[in-house]
Amino acid sequence: MIRFVILFSAFITFAYSEDCDVRNFPDGTVCVCSANYCDTVPSLDVSIGKYQVYSTSKSKLGFSSKTGLFSTQDPAQNVDNVKVDRSIKHQTIIGFGGAFTDSTGINIQSLPTEAQDKLMESYFGKSGIEYNLGRVPIGGTDFSTRAYSYDDFPLDTTLMKFALQPEDLNYKIPLIRKANILTNNKLNLFASAWTAPPWMKTNNDWHGIGFLQTKYYQLWADYMIKFLKCFLAYLGVERAVELGSWARGAKYIEDIFDNLQYGAGGWVDWNMALDETGGPNFIDNMVDSPIIVNATQQEFYKQPMFYAIGHFSNLSESDSDVQALAFLRPDNLTALVIYSSQSSDITIQIEDSNNQKAEIYIEANSINTVIYE
Ligand SMILES: *[C@@H]1O[C@H](CO)[C@@H](O)[C@H](O)[C@H]1NC(C)=O
Ligand SMILES: *[C@@H]1O[C@H](CO)[C@@H](O)[C@H](O)[C@H]1NC(C)=O
Ligand SMILES: *[C@@H]1O[C@H](CO)[C@@H](O)[C@H](O)[C@H]1NC(C)=O
């Protein structure tokens, strides 16, 4: 009887995570999520001498995890190796994130509440990829359903009529609040504007070649300050969507590697959620997004791009077909991200400057994160 109880309690503390609900499309594979189901990130399971590898590959989407033990021996056969030198440190990572565009809000809100929660958890939550950075558009962007600024009253040179818009109140602010709760108040935001109100510009237009008129430099600065005050008061050409495209995920990985190697302290994606056509966008500039919402079917699809960013955002040289970057995490664990664009599986040796060695199996077209002390 006692034995049974012990076994039972050991069972319920076992690291638990949800697998990818695979669906194949002509361009590739996605993981399907809905109000009832969404895959999660397996929890951390490392200790001295034991490493954990998280993997995502073209043939197996989602995050799978396995553990292994370090040794001090070199492998029997000759394999490539990745060396981690703890004495050389580069930039500090600020974080990873995406943009709270109007389209992001419209699409997320087109899902049932439980599915919305799963989508936000996927990006910001503990069982998700833990984004901690957000970009906030000041006014509208092309990923809005209309052109607007916070003062569309020509020659209102005192900004008397300045006001946040329904898009801020209905989409951006509620989502930012949710994200902030999910990150335990650790969300960092930065804001940027697409355009000044047309009447402040030389061409009096939303787009085209126009500049801020010199006489409005101060007014434009005041406009930004007003935005910050109002907003904080509330807070407290390719085919657009290629569902499941591993190639697009690979482009994200390569871009993030490049940016980090040249000293970037973070990386912020554009729209977090778009619809099946890659919108809405009022100038028909449809694009792809790591999460695509199918409002008709009340579900959303996490694409390879989503998992690609996840390997960096939850943590943490060369143009060869195997790239690696190591991050020292705030909890002092090391996270070594290894990306392979080779078309066959390989084995590589990882070797840390504290003489921990391990052979790691790397699947074809995969991104892997090795975590250890
Ligand atoms: C992400 O971080 C959480 C909390 O630190 C951890 O439980 C999880 O295993 C991590 N996932 C990855 C892929 O590093
Ligand atoms: C979205 O759902 C609709 C309705 O079930 C379905 O017809 C459509 O094929 C779905 N879109 C995708 C990309 O699966
Ligand atoms: C990480 O290591 C540094 C330097 O050894 C130490 O000061 C810090 O307290 C450690 N942090 C954690 C979370 O253990």
UniProtKB/TrEMBL annotation:
Residue ranges annotated for the Glycosyl hydrolase family 30 TIM-barrel domain, each copy included: 93-230, 238-314
Domain Glycosyl hydrolase family 30 beta sandwich positions: 316-370
Keyword Cytoplasm: no
EC numbers, comma separated: 3.2.1.45
GO molecular-function terms, A-Z: glucosylceramidase activity
Metal-binding recorded as keyword: no
GO cellular component: membrane
Signal peptide start-end: 1-17
Reaction catalyzed: a beta-D-glucosyl-(1<->1')-N-acylsphing-4-enine + H2O = an N-acylsphing-4-enine + D-glucose
InterPro entries: GH, GH30_C, Glyco_hydro_30, Glyco_hydro_30_TIM-barrel
Coiled coil regions, renumbered to chain: none
Transmembrane stretches, start-end: none
GO terms classed as biological process: glucosylceramide catabolic process
Name used for this protein in its record: Glucosylceramidase
